[in-house]
Amino acid sequence: MWSRLPFGEMLRAELGSPRHARRLGSSPRSRVWRAELSGTQVVVKQLIDGPEAAERYAREVAALRLASQADPPVVPMLLGTDPAERVLVLEHLEHRQPADDWVVGYADALARLHAATGTDAAGALPAWSGPSHDDIDSFLGLARTLGCAVSSGVRTELGALVDRLTRLPGHALLHGDPCPGNDMHTSSGVRFIDFEQAALGSGLVELAYLRIGFPTCWCATAPARTLLDEAEAAYRTAWRSATGTVVEDDLTDACASWLLRGDALVQRAHRGTADHLAKIPERDWRWGTATARQRLVHRLGITSRMTPAGSELEELGQLATAMRDTMLTRWPALQPLPSLRP
Predict the structure, then answer these.
(1) 275 phi/psi in degrees, rounded to 5
(2) What confidence score (pLDDT) does residue 118 get?
(3) Chain centre to alpha carbon of residue 298
(4) Burial (CB count <10 Å: 0-12, 13-18, 19+), residue 120
(5) pLDDT for the residue numbered 26
(6) What is the DSSP annotation of 250-277?
(7) Does the predicted TM-score (pTM) go above 0.90?
(8) Residue 127: DSSP 8-state
(9) In this predicted structure, what is the pLDDT of residue 248?
(10) DSSP secondary structure string, 133-202?
(11) In the chain, what is the straight-line distance between the N-terminal and C-terminal CA atoms, in Å?
(12) Which residues of the chain have pLDDT under 70?
């Protein structure tokens, strides 16, 4: 199969001729091989034709180059590129079975990834974009369909939330999809792969993944509270060590942002194609480790606990509680998210 490897003359002149190529599993948006160059194993990745393929390739290359500044490393070394064929040649990493407390090392590495960029990286990647006012409409439409009362105050709160998120400060290097499976647990620590959705923004929106259940991931999990606390503390310690600054304590807005996004209930290929929240009352669907209703119930519970009386999102918290209770009453067989990754 090595002859099918997209390894053109430019790469051969730069890196030599590959041998023993073997196709690996990958997403539908890419093809991936393991090969040898001068006796050393490498990974060759090609982004195939499709929507935004050129943009996804540019994001990945830019993110890997920016992340290469981190020490110890948090990404595989980028050995070569062929922009015409959208090919990357990467250091091969030996993945180990993650430990039971994998989220702690994951969070430490995520902080160091985020800290790899400073203000001088502005423009190197697109800025992170949060939920929109259309997402508010979809979320409140679901609440009404479930029979929950929607006050005028909750719409006001959500409008203010969306506006705050557009102004969320930060120039962190965001992975874009920091999911179990995109983290390689190696003998020298965790490294991240697959940066096709990388962006710049506030690290809070990805630190929130741990609490809100890995919202863009097939592998939705809810770590035990003790592990969650330890992982968030590890993130904050690593960030402070790398930047000399303190991470903001409040993750409420970041978690609520994932609650509003119906596209965070489906895999990437189906995002932007429908109002997925509107489908929840009529049908459930499984994606990876959990169903859409399981994911939503988890996010509602987290948000309700983080928005007590007197908070900026008090009425959202009340609505989230009502929606969660309604869903669990209507579908009593719904189970919590798994606490362990497969």
Answers:
(1) -85, 95
(2) 92
(3) 17
(4) exposed
(5) 77
(6) --HHHHHHHHH-GGGGS-GGGTTSS-HH
(7) yes
(8) B
(9) 83
(10) HHHHHHHHHHHHHTT----HHHHHHHHHHHHHHHT----EEE-S---TTSEEEETTEEEE---TT-EEE-
(11) 30
(12) 1-3
- Helix axes 133-145 and 252-260, enclosed angle (nearest 10): 70
Take residue 198 and report the two structure tokens written for it: 């990388």
Contact 34, 41 (CB under 8 A): yes
In angstroms, rounded to a whole number, what is the distance separating the alpha carbons of residues 203 and 113? 9
Looking at residue 1, its pLDDT comes to 40
- Number of neighbouring beta carbons within 10 Å of residue 54: 12
Give the CA count within 13 Å in the CB-facing half-sphere of 265.
Answer: 27
- Residues 202 and 147: beta-carbon distance below 8 Å: no
Locate 96 and state its tokens. Answer: 């180990």
Whether the bond into 332 is cis, omega within 30 of 0: no
What's the gap between Cα 165 and its chain centre? 17
Rg of the chain over all Cα atoms, to the nearest angstrom: 21
The pLDDT value recorded for residue 27 is 79
CA distance 140 to 272: 18
- Burial (CB < 10 A; 0-12, 13-18, 19+), residue 313, is buried
By the 10 Å C-beta count (0-12 exposed, 13-18 middle, 19+ buried), 56 is classed as buried
pLDDT in tens, 179-228: 999 999 999 999 999 999 999 999 999 999 999 999 999 999 999 999 99
How large is the angle between the packed helices 152-166 and 133-145, nearest 10 degrees?
150
Model pLDDT, residue 3 = 47
Consecutive H or E run containing 324: helix 314-330
Query: How many other CB atoms sit within 10 Å of the CB of residue 274?
Result: 12
Pull the structure tokens for residue 144: 């009404």
Quote the CA–CA distance of 44 and 21 in Å, as a whole number.
9
